Amino acid sequence: MYISRQGRSWMMLIILFGVELCAVAAADADGQCDGDGCEERHNAWTSQGECLQERMGWDSFVCVCTASVCDMPGSIPHPQQTDVYTVVTSDRQHHRFHVTHGTMSTAPTGGGHVVHLNTRIAYQQMLGFGGSVTDASGIVFFGLSEAVQDLLIRSYFGADGIAYNIVRTPIGGSDFSKRPYSYDDRPGDVALAHFALAQEDLMYKVPLLKRAQTLAKETSELKIFASPWSPPAWMKNNGRFNGSGSLIPAMRQPYADYIVKFLDEYSSRGLRMWGITTQNEPLAGLQFDVAFNAMVFTAEDMRAWLVENLLPALTAGGHDDLELIISDQGRDHLPHYPAQILAHDELSRRVSGIGIHWYQDTPENLHHLTETRAVLPDYFTLHTEACLGYDSPPTERVKLGDWGRAERYASSIIETSNRGTSGWVDWNLALDLQGGPNWASNFVDSPIIVDTEHDKFYRQPMYYALGHFSKFVARGARAVYMSLLHAPLPGVAASAFLNPDGGVVVVLLNSEETETTVSLQPRMSQEKYINIVLPAKSIQTVLFRAT
């Protein structure tokens, strides 16, 4: 067959392009294929470019980021015209932040479900969405090259990422450290003469928080709050960081001073805390012998410690503006635990919010959220910790590419937002391939998993599930009414928000194996509809103007 010179040139370009694609698909970051490790990869389009997919044996895929290949969600602005909308889609099979645009219709889709919105009926104000800077996250982050570090931190906090605006960090060590430690491990040092930040703070947490703080300024002020897992072991009646010990009564003031010294040290490094939770999971030690850093703090003891020790110490140290968040544990302890603390007049005025973890969440205790809002309406509720894999077999602590875990995240954010919660904060920002490091072997999953050996990281479906909210729901937004709150659709869950600038955000989750059609009616007084198809196993964010 005769091929012209021009034709041969085009054919050569096609061959070279094909070879390049094959090389990307078959090689690891170091350019070497490792046999059985060469999983299937192919490209998926996002708003900003290509996602290098990798399937790791679960039902969906991860997006691979290396120094040379890494998609970013990019800029996805709200429409400015009142009759147009934008839809952002992620699903199990194909997409991550796939963006489409449309014009509202004058009639709903035949056979579809009509969902009415009313942005004039507004509920709680949103504080934000984010994750946690732990020792483990810092260790894996700084194990990457500078170029890949930049991509990872932008993925979370950059305007072209998913725009996190709130972060939690431990006071001292947690299980997600390589060792148990505190800031003063000299027994009996009640004057805290030997208090000092640990190397983990100076090498990992402080520099990572400062980089996040700088990036977050592109979209919002970063709110940082801190949580203690355990005081120095010598301040506890069991003499250990872990287990079921509680604070020795004589150590109440030294421990309050310890917290203030932490706040001072971080503030001197440009990291003034927005808030603190008063104790991570204060009742866990009454339920089981905790394998990692912990302390029992009953509501009665917490109330006394706050009034007699911590509040005066905060005032003396110039931290009166600190937001105090109590409880910081499962919703099965609502509303009785915080209610006992807030029964004290001074604390009822000084406490700002109630922290909630998701580990004891069941359909049967979901009503505790609405009860808490009804009984304690003057305090925000903030989801302060979640992760998956903690109760899985050892080989399934990390499930790279699992879509079910993304659904769990999206479902939790929707159900808590629909019941008065003002934000949702994930656990570790990033972990290694095992789900650590963790000194207590309490390995879990994370939205980003890091492979430091090959200088790359994987964005999991959970990352995109979080981004469907964090990137679009602005601080100061209000949760607003939608008819799904009272007339649910099988397999479909949704939340709606009104941003301060008049942009409306609706996030929908379809957990069914089949697609479904939904017609959103943004303004009940107008016959205008957003007719959308929810793909099977998908999350969609719909953006439009309120008026």
Structural overview:
The protein is an alpha/beta fold and 547 residues long. The protein has three domains: 5-65, no CATH class; 84-124 and 479-545, Immunoglobulin-like (Sandwich); 127-472, Glycosidases (TIM Barrel), CATH 3.20.20.80. The chain is 27% helix and 25% strand. The chain is built from twelve helices and 23 strands. It has helices at residues 5-26, 135-141, 146-157, 199-216, 252-268, 284-287, 299-316, 336-342, 345-350, 367-375, 403-417, 461-470, and strands at residues 43-45, 50-54, 62-65, 84-91, 98-103, 113-125, 128-132, 166-171, 223-228, 275-277, 323-330, 351-357, 380-385, 421-428, 431-432, 448-451, 456-459, 478-482, 492-498, 503-510, 516-521, 530-534, 538-545. The strands form three sheets. Strands 5-4-23-20-19-18-6-21-22 form a nine-stranded mixed sheet, covered by helices on one side. An eight-stranded parallel barrel has the order 7-8-9-10-11-12-13-14. A six-stranded mixed sheet has the order 1-2-3-17-16-15. Strand 12 (351-357), helix 10 (367-375) and strand 13 (380-385) form a beta-alpha-beta unit. Helix 11 (403-417) packs parallel to helix 12 (461-470). Residues 128-473 form the Glycosyl hydrolase family 30 TIM-barrel domain. Keywords: Glycosidase, Hydrolase, Lipid metabolism, Signal, Sphingolipid metabolism. One of its GO terms (cellular component) is lysosome.
